[in-house]
Amino acid sequence: MTCTEITDIILDEIKGGFERSNFHGVNLKKALLTPVKQKYISAQDNSISFELWTVLEETEDQSGYTIFYDAEERNFGLGMKSEDNKLLYLGNYGSFLETLNAM
After folding, report:
1. What digits encode the pLDDT tens for the residues 41-64?
2. Out of 1, 19, 42, 69, which residue is the most buried by the measure of CB atoms under 10 Å away?
């Protein structure tokens, strides 16, 4: 899977609705990223790690949630930075919009 394919999945789902937000007030125009593959550590067991595509950062200072795409499961999920600046895997939620709303 490529970053272009992942971007296409997101754009197809939001259908130009960049004004859409969630309970946290996420601005999709600012928060969406060019997908980048990163290592996430399980929040439950730090010996388990995942290679996931980060597609959204809730805040510019990276202190909020992230949304990732899991190419193996073909769905999206939530992550966040730990106190020691590692990405934590919180779980898969389904579609991009389902994950955005779950934030």
Report:
1. 999 999 999 999 999 999 988 889
2. 69
Q: Which letter does DSSP use for residue 65 in this model?
A: E
Number of domains, the chain = 1
| Measured distance CA(70)–CA(94) in Å, rounded | 10
Res 22 pLDDT > 90 = no
Look up the domain containing 97 and give its range: 3-102
* Tokens 């007030």, residue located: 25
List CB contacts of 79: < 8 A, sequence separation 6 or more. 40, 52, 54, 65, 66, 67, 68, 87, 88, 89, 90
Smallest CA-to-CA distance from 88 within 102, 78, 103, 75 is with 78
> How far is the C-alpha of 1 from the C-alpha of 80, rounded, in Å?
23
